[in-house]
Amino acid sequence: MNPIKNDVPVQEFTILNKQIFIVRDDLCSPFPGNNNSKSRGIYQFLKKIDNDTIGVLDTCFSRGGWGVAWLGSILRKKVYVYVKQKCVNDFFRKMAKLHGGTIISLNNVGRINYNYNIAKKDIINKNGVMLPLYLKLHETVDEIEKVSFNILSKYDIKTIVVSVGSGTIASGIVRSADISKVKIYGIGHKDLSLKNRYNYIEKMSRKKKGITIIKMNYTYGQPNYDIRPPFPCDLYYDRWAWAWLIENINKLNEPILFWNIGGEWHHETGLFPAFRGDGITSKEEVDKWIENRGLI
Q1: By the number of CB atoms within 10 A of the CB, which of 114, 186, 197, 258 ranks highest?
Q2: What angle do CA 24, 197, 146 make, to 5 degrees?
Q3: What does the alpha-carbon distance between residue 100 and residue 81 come to, in Å, rounded to a whole number?
Q4: Residue (of 204, 164, 158) closest to 177 by Cα position
Q5: What domains, with CATH codes, occur in the chain?
Q6: What dihedral angle (degrees, nearest 10) is formed by the CA atoms of 146, 61, 266, 172?
Q7: What angle do CA 186, 189, 190 make, to 5 degrees?
Q8: Both ends of the chain: CA-CA distance in Å?
Q9: Torsion, CA 89, CA 91, CA 94, CA 98, rounded to 10
Q10: If residue 146 lies in a helix (H) or strand (E), which one and from where to where?
Q11: SS (H, E, C) 55-112
């Protein structure tokens, strides 16, 4: 049975007299899944692979390893999660381990491309398949396009705001939207390469000038503790995009759609002290699930 939910909630809010719809695509993979839109494409990709050994590179702030290990356990695949040594015991890696993943420690000083090549070489030596860097999968774009098209067909949306990391989720949204009628804003960190993201999104969406990317003054992995949206919202990505939306709300045509990619987890502490996770599963239920898995 497909563990990914296609029929995710769309919540409506009126904020500063503006109508905003929130696509809770984090709920496509609720706990004990990793609450992240990219899980859509990961599941489709893993289903196609005959190889039973899979490798994935995590950053300290990434829930990719958690998601791949979760889906790998369902599809009976052995998953190796590669991450810098300083992050091997963080909550996100604990969750990957609880789903049967094996955590492989990498040198703390290695840059991401360097570490990816090391991980890929190791997984090939294990006769396995390495997932692409940043989990940039065609399958994710395809799956997001389907869900986005279905949602946009029900609402007369004028503005879309979405966080941009790799640009994979944004590509699916742009591909599904009528960009002559909808203005799409992608919000990213200050070190984002605009040229690379525009080129990637244009290639994957098959549309030119389908999105305007805004770089905010924060670094990759920097959590946003300054705001608390009225829904569970990723600390490292979506909260920054939400902050930009609120700051610029009077300049945006409504109705506005905000695509929520990730749930509200802390990479080191999980739900402690006051995070909401998927907004459905309580901290007590999460703790109990972990305890029953035999790792506290």
Answers
A1: 186
A2: 40
A3: 10
A4: 158
A5: 10-34+137-260 (3.40.50.1100), 39-135 (3.40.50.1100)
A6: -10
A7: 115
A8: 29
A9: 170
A10: helix 138-152
A11: EEECCCCCCHHHHHHHHHHHCCCEEEEEEEHHHCCCHHHHHHHHCCCEEEEECCCCCH
Q: Given the structure tokens 């670094």, which residue do they identify?
A: 219
pLDDT tens across 254-282, in order? 999 999 999 999 999 999 999 999 999 99
Rg (CA), the chain: 18
Arithmetic mean of pLDDT, 28-36: 98
- Span 150-169, pLDDT tens digits: 999 999 999 999 999 999 99
Joined together, the tokens standing for residue 105 give 């420690």
Judge whether residue 108 has pLDDT over 90: no
Which residues are within 8 A (CB) of 58 and not within 5 positions of it... i.e. 6 or more apart? Answer: 64, 65, 81, 82, 83, 87, 92, 93, 96
What confidence score (pLDDT) does residue 296 get?
46
Which among 117, 169, 162, 116 is positioned nearest to 147, based on CA atoms? 169
182 neighbors 261 (Cβ within 8 angstroms): no
Give backbone dihedrals phi and psi of 267, rounded to 5 degrees, phi first. Answer: -65, -25
- Cα-Cα-Cα-Cα dihedral of 2, 239, 165, 216, to 10°? 170
- The three state secondary structure string of 98-118 is HCCCEEEEECCCCCHHHHHHH
CB-neighbour burial class of residue 246 (10 A; exposed 0-12, middle 13-18, buried 19+): middle
Q: With H, G, I as helix, E, B as strand and everything else as coil, classify residue 186.
A: strand
pLDDT digits (tens, 9 = 90+) for 64-107: 999 999 999 999 999 999 999 999 999 999 999 999 999 999 98
Torsion angle of the four alpha carbons 287, 289, 291, 296, in this order, in degrees rounded to the nearest 10: -60
Q: Is 164 left (phi over 0), alpha (psi -120 to 50) or beta?
A: beta
Which two tokens mark 55? 């490798």
